[in-house]
Write a structure and sequence with these properties.
With 254 residues, this protein is mainly α. The protein contains nine helices and two strands, in the order ααββααααααα. It folds into two domains: 105 residues, no CATH class; 135 residues, Tetratricopeptide repeat domain (Serine Threonine Protein Phosphatase 5, Tetratricopeptide repeat, Alpha Horseshoe), CATH 1.25.40. The chain has a two-stranded antiparallel sheet. A hairpin with a 2-residue loop joins β1 and β2. InterPro entries: BamD-like (IPR039565), CpoB (IPR034706), CpoB_C (IPR014162), TPR-like_helical_dom_sf (IPR011990), YbgF_tri (IPR032519).
Length: 254
């Protein structure tokens, strides 16, 4: 603004200096006053223009700052939204992974429950389905707890469901014992005879014969009972059943 005013002042000064005293009268007070007013107007106009430019620049800068702040705020909101999306996805992935682990663990558990197991029966190794093991153990547990009717039903059901099971021999033997315990002596005899015929090499044959002899005694069939006890002492002389058979023979009179 000062640079623009100085030339006007300088020109005015030179003009005044160049006038001779003779010409000074040509300029009266009104003309001088108008010149000064014009100069002031020029100075004011120049100042107003600069202020307007400064105000415009300030407004533009303010707008740019406001726009930048809005953009930054918008970016921060978008970043926060994306973080929320990422966290949600991470939780979903973690949930899916947990569900997959639980799913495979459940399958593995089920497979283990259904996979055959190695068992030893009378000194021999067998691979047996777990359902068979469970059914046999349930019937045997009932027998062990002297729940003989329940045991007889359990062993009978087992033999119907699993006639070819490695537990068939044991189930038949204990079925005969359960029938004897419930005083169903005729069925006990038939069951033990079936056992002996199907498993002649079983170490439980002497006990099955002893049970047959005892059942015959209970049925008052002393003749066949003596024959059965004698067979035990002859075929299996070193067995515990042979000692019991000798004692029973001593009590049976012809």
């Amino acid at each position: 603004m000062i640079r623009k005013v100085l030339p006007a002042v300088a020109m005015l000064s030179l003009s005044l200096a160049a006038l001779s005293p003779a010409h000074a009268g040509l300029f009266d007070d009104d003309e001088a006053r108008r010149a000064i007013l014009d100069l002031r107007s020029q100075i004011k106009s120049t100042g107003d223009t600069d202020r307007d430019r400064a105000d415009a620049l300030e407004k533009r800068l303010t707008k740019l700052q406001f726009d930048s702040a809005q953009q930054i705020d918008g970016l921060n909101q978008e970043i926060a939204r994306l973080r929320g999306v990422i966290e949600t996805l991470q939780r979903d992935v973690a949930d899916q992974q947990r569900k997959q682990r639980d799913f495979y663990a459940d399958i593995d558990s089920r497979l283990k429950r259904t996979e055959p197991q190695q068992v030893t029966i009378d000194g021999q190794q067998f691979s047996v389905d777990q359902e068979q093991i469970k059914a046999y153990n349930a019937a045997f547990e009932a027998f062990r707890q002297s729940q003989f009717p329940r045991a007889a039903d359990g062993f009978s059901g087992f033999l119907s469901r699993y006639p070819d099971s490695p537990y068939t021999g044991l189930a038949t033997f204990w079925l005969g014992n359960a029938q004897f315990a419930t005083r169903d002596f005729a069925k006990a005899i038939d069951t033990h005879r079936t056992f002996i015929k199907a498993f002649p090499d079983s170490p439980r044959v002497p006990d099955a014969l002893l049970n047959i002899g005892n059942s015959q005694v209970e049925l008052a069939d002393k003749k066949n009972a003596r024959t059965t006890f004698m067979a035990i002492t002859i075929k299996y002389p070193d067995s515990p059943a042979a000692a019991s058979a000798k004692d029973r023979l001593a009590t049976l009179k012809p």
